Amino acid sequence: MTEFRVAALYKFTPLQADKALQDKLLSACQANGVMGTLLIASEGINGTIAGSHNAIEAVLDVIRSLPGCGDIEHKDSAASEQPFLRMKVRLKKEIVTLGVPGVDPSKAVGTYVEPEDWNDLISAEDVVTIDTRNDYEVRIGQFKGAVNPETTSFREFPEWFRKFRETRPNARIAMYCTGGIRCEKSTAFALTEGLDEVFHLKGGILKYLERIPEDDSLWDGDCFVFDRRVAVRHGLEEGDYTTCHACREPLAPEDLKSPLFVAGESCPHCHAERTGQQRQRYAERQRQEELAAARGERHVGAVYRTEGEDE
């Protein structure tokens, strides 16, 4: 069985993010059969790509040649099948969309905490642990005792954080996210708001699940990822979740047994919110996907974002 290498990467560094760079990265990915998403902006690069080991290495070499990217870090995991349907390189205003002008993680961010030191930090009585991800991600897994902002978009985080800080003005803050990029932005934002002690998990949940044995872990559940695997667990093994094609909520095996689940049309999370016309459109898309599968083809219908991309 072919195993695909999945590389999640980001780097905050000044870039000339233009069509020339977009074309350069897209050509490198296409030449090596790599799929996924790369976002480029004047503040840097962000994305997740998948392909063979050598193909990913070839694309990483191109990325490392970019200004300030020679030391770019990436997090590797594996997938039993290609987890993306296409390759996209997008020009953006931000590589992770917070929407607050003047926040620059290349100048100042919170204190990095290695996965091996994370448990001690978040177990301290004067530390509040905040999950910077969106509600649908938090629902399937989070660190024990962490605060869920219940956001639907990262753009909502600043307003939530300003209100929350009023309730715990003297607390030390520890933040985490999937791969680390949202925490780069959120801790940089927190510093601009006047906080002195703000920490974040280096490498994010993915690095924690890679390094920390399950018996020693404070993580509860699975970690949502932005591709067809849907979620991973300790050791970065693929989880048992699928995605609702109507609302893109992660679905556990028990969700599929609900009478409100109709493949390609609805799930327990969105059934009451969808009109008959919408369900009809989803049903047609599902039919086209099944026809494509019967022909041994892949129907490019699903859209997968990368972490922090505009929701």
From TrEMBL:
- Which residue range or ranges hold the Rhodanese domain? 123-217
Q: So which domain of life are we looking at?
A: Bacteria
- Sequence ranges of Basic and acidic residues compositional bias: 273-300
Give the enzyme's EC designation: 1.14.-.-
SMART domains assigned? RHOD (SM00450)
The cross-references to CDD domains, in alphabetical order and at most eight, read: RHOD_YceA
How far does the signal peptide extend, from start to end residue? none
Catalytic reactions on record: uridine(34) in tRNA + AH2 + O2 = 5-hydroxyuridine(34) in tRNA + A + H2O
Key words of the record: Oxidoreductase, tRNA processing
InterPro entries, sorted: Rhodanese-like_dom, Rhodanese-like_dom_sf, TrhO, TRHO_N
| Region (Disordered) location | 273-311
The family line of this record is: Belongs to the TrhO family.
Q: Quote the HAMAP family the UniProt record gives.
A: TrhO (MF_00469)
Job description of the protein: Catalyzes oxygen-dependent 5-hydroxyuridine (ho5U) modification at position 34 in tRNAs.
Protein name, as recorded: tRNA uridine(34) hydroxylase
Lineage of producing organism: Bacteria, Pseudomonadati, Pseudomonadota, Alphaproteobacteria, Maricaulales
Q: Which gene encodes it?
A: trhO
